[in-house]
């Protein structure tokens, strides 16, 4: 029988509760503590997890111990601090994205991880998706040749407020670019890995200040390849579209649901492979963040045992660096040259 990994959960809001359900579905994982930041989340935890010790103080939960890893599902501005405290307590960390809301925070988490000899797995769950991960497999196998252009589009209803309205508070969320666009920034960097790092970007938004409901970003690589990433938070339901053209083929995939957390979305993936005259569909067993969250936690726990994580921390930092540069481009209404990210 596999060794049981004991997990402490920091945060029991709507997404923290999704973490709890995902952990319950993993045979070799057990939830042994939960931090609840308020009365409503504590009541929810008492009802859903009556046998799991509950704490209103995160420090008290860490001091009590009894876990091998902590999964952090709190507002964005608290990610880095919670992660570092868990590392200092000797635990591995599963951390919701973004890694931090500043590069200084990101670097502090990287340093704390190295100092503690413990791993941090950032929840960029699309990397383990049957759908979005398959796109990377197709590119890595050379089936469409060198990536020349990517178009990634998100069209969705406005963000939920979050507990206490944190998702609509610039100081707590960081920005709406860091809240969701960071996922797609990470994917275009991953898909374009063979092209190196992008060398410049320019972004446009419906407003400055980090909480714009429409954002468009053009990234450019030294070899002339490009990526156009757009986010519209003034739409309805939840719709994503990705189109990638290589020098020998192309990929197109989409996902749609009544919300980002639906269990019954529609989705499809098609590829025109090197030498083919027409595209062919690629079977996807399932797709959606509620499934990918469970798989990402499962792989994180495996990575804690083997030292092989799905996503290097440096890649999570790079996605934050690009997002912060997008904000700077919007604020200055100018293209920005990218140096090392």
UniProtKB/TrEMBL annotation:
Residue stretches making up the Gfo/Idh/MocA-like oxidoreductase N-terminal domain: 6-124
The protein's name in its UniProt record: Gfo/Idh/MocA family oxidoreductase
PANTHER family, alphabetized: BILIVERDIN REDUCTASE A (PTHR43377)
InterPro entries, per the entry: Gfo/Idh/MocA-like_OxRdtase_N (IPR000683), Gfo/Idh/MocA_Oxidoreductases (IPR051450), GFO_IDH_MocA-like_dom (IPR055170), NAD(P)-bd_dom_sf (IPR036291)
Domain called GFO/IDH/MocA-like oxidoreductase: residue spans: 134-251
One MF annotation (Gene Ontology) recorded for this entry: nucleotide binding
Stretches of the chain forming a coiled coil according to its record: none
